[in-house]
Amino acid sequence: MRNCLILYRWLFICLLILVHVSCRQEKDDPTPSAHYRVVKAVQTAFDGNLTTTYQYDNQNRLSTVTEYPVVADTFAKAVPTAQHIVHYDATPPTYLDYTDRKLTKPELDGGELVYGSRRRFVYDTQGRIAIVSELKALANFQSFRLTQTFQYEYGPDNLPAALIISGVAPLSERNVYVYNFLNGNAVHVKLTITNARSSEPTFFEYDVQFDNAPGVYTNFFALYPGITSFNKNNLINTSTTHFHDERGLLVKRVKKGNYIDDVTTYTYETY
Question: Which of 69, 163, 181, 191 has its Cβ near the most Cβ atoms within 10 Å?
Fold first, then answer.
């Protein structure tokens, strides 16, 4: 009987330890990608300041992105410089249809007024983004002119083995990126550049490093149709320092500048 009591006591102690460890792991495990999303980015740089806010709809989809030319806490009282409106396909609703970046004031470009830009998305039969067309918006978004296209070629892991970015005439630049992924990030890149002014292509090859924090802009294809939206974590280069909070989130990025540093801070919300 005494041995049974001792056994039960040890089992009870072990159970308490197991529960404590389990709760501690749940508390300390940030898993930010499942619980947090960026709602504001504030950037100070030599060539200007910028506050960007991100809003989501009732389906937790990115819906509106607004750009302000100030970084003060009263930024919302300022006149925005531009606003992105994200439009989704009705079936399925997870597909992007197109996004508009509307300038508050049209800008003169090549003798014509430009009111912003539009991106149109085409998916393949497996539900992956296949082509993104970027267009210049003219006549208050009544007409459009193609500026470049993004074309994706996927590997067996459904990550892009290659991304082809093609410009339009007369330069007709064509950038072909070939990627090797490791742990969800494009860690090795081969780039081939061709254009109408050069008879020989230009080649680059380089490695890329990442932090361990969930990517601030992972799956932000509406804003970043390039490789940024595919990467699991945040890119680091030799001139950039990352700062993370106790949740494991990237909250500050400092890029060394010639005159002043380029500093971006991020604010998140739970959902």
Answer: 163
Is 19 a residue whose pLDDT tops 50? no
The reply to whether 1 falls in a domain is no
pLDDT at residue 16, rounded to an integer = 34
Range of the domain at 252: 38-270
Whichever domain contains 94, its CATH number is: 2.40.160
| Tokens at 68, concatenated | 């302000």
Q: Is 29 a domain residue?
A: no
Contacts of residue 230, defined as CB under 8 A and 6 or more positions apart, other chains included, come to 159, 160, 186, 218
Tokens in use for 176? 């072909």
| CB-CB contact of 83 with 101 (8 Å) | yes
Closest CA to 228 of 174, 172, 179, 175: 179
Distances (CA, A) of 161 to 6, 155, 197, 230: 60, 5, 27, 11
Q: How far apart are CA 69 and CA 43, in angstroms?
A: 10
pLDDT in tens, 173-230: 999 999 999 999 999 999 999 999 998 999 999 999 999 999 999 999 999 999 999 9
Question: How many domains, the chain?
Answer: 1
Choose among 45, 53, 46, 118: nearest CA to 80: 53
In terms of C-beta density within 10 A (0-12 exposed, 13-18 middle, 19 or more buried), how is residue 121 classed? buried
From residue 222, alpha-carbon distances to 64, 86, 260 in Å are 10, 7, 30
Q: Give the pLDDT band of residue 8 (cuts 50, 70, 90).
A: very low
Report d(CA 36, CA 23) in Å as an integer: 20
Q: Is residue 7 part of a domain?
A: no
